[in-house]
Structures are given as C-alpha cells and as structure tokens.
Design a protein that fits this description.
0% strand
Length: 165
C-alpha cells in the first residue's frame, strides 16, 4: 500500500486519534457518571465537558507531538490539530443523542452499542489499510473499550455507594 501524502497523513492522524479518543473517553465518562450519580443532567454536562475540554486537550497534545517530531510543516501540524479537535468534539457530541432521547440506563447501553459499532468499523478499515486480520484488530480494540467501560462503571458504583450514601 502506498504511503499517504503528508496532508493525508495529518488528516488520518487527527481523525483516527480524535475519533478513538472520543469513543473511549466519552464511553468511560457516560458509564461512570451514570453509575455514580444516576443523573441524566450530570451525564449531559460531562459529555459536553469532554466534547470541549478534552477535545482541546487532545488537539494540543497532537499539536505538540507533531511539532516535536520535527518533520512536519506548519500546515501539516495544524491539519492534524484541527482534525483531532473536530473529530473528538463531534464523536463525543454524538453520545448526547441517546442521553437526551432515552431513559438513562437505556441510553448507557445505546451509547455502548454506538461506540462499539463506530470503533469496530474504524478498526476494520485500519486493519485493511495495514493488511492485518480485521477480526483480531476489531476484537483487540473492542476489548480495550470493554475494559474501560467495566472499570469506569464499577468506579462510578463505588463512588455512589461508598461516598454518596
């Protein structure tokens, strides 16, 4: 497979990093806050916070990382930065839909399903581009997401039952 152009590489870095981070971070937040607070309002506020603050944080992280490599032009660095912000922001924002439309427990399950679907599709295309076995790449990425969901859910329950009651 041919190497992507520098602009294509910058777009790919921002898109893949931002989307993956948006899925994992937001799923962790949704499951943890829902378990810990049982508050739809807290989950909505958390998702909005992730969509803005964490998207900016990740974008700056990519910006500094790309600068530190010392091989990218200013245009490439800013392409990766802005693509990371936009993809993280938009990905995180999609998790508002089930929280706004569904009962909270159902919204958590819908969010998990949505995140798993997007992650699986993205993982499939990444695997194909690397000539790897898609099933193993998908399973690896879904396993990591499942670990995050489980840990944050139980942390949320621990907070709820240990500190709030």
């Amino acid at each position: 497979m041919a190497e992507p152009s520098d602009d294509a590489h910058s777009l790919q870095v921002g898109l893949l990093f931002g989307t993956t981070s948006g899925i994992i971070t937001t799923l962790g937040l949704v499951t943890g806050l829902a378990a810990g607070t049982e508050s739809r309002l807290a989950v909505i506020g958390g998702v909005l916070t992730i969509a803005v603050a964490d998207a900016m944080s990740d974008a700056l992280g990519i910006h500094v990382s790309e600068e530190a490599e010392g091989v990218h032009s200013e245009r490439e660095i800013w392409t990766a930065t802005l693509t990371t912000f936009a993809s993280k922001f938009l990905t995180a924002a999609t998790f508002l839909v089930p929280v706004l439309l569904l009962e909270l427990k159902t919204a958590v399950w819908a969010s998990i399903a949505w995140g798993a679907l997007v992650l699986a599709v993205m993982s499939y295309f990444v695997a194909r581009s690397q000539r790897a076995r898609p099933l193993w790449v998908i399973l690896e990425h879904l396993f990591i997401a499942a670990v995050v969901v489980a840990i944050t859910h139980y942390l949320g329950e621990w907070v709820h039952y240990s500190l709030l009651e």
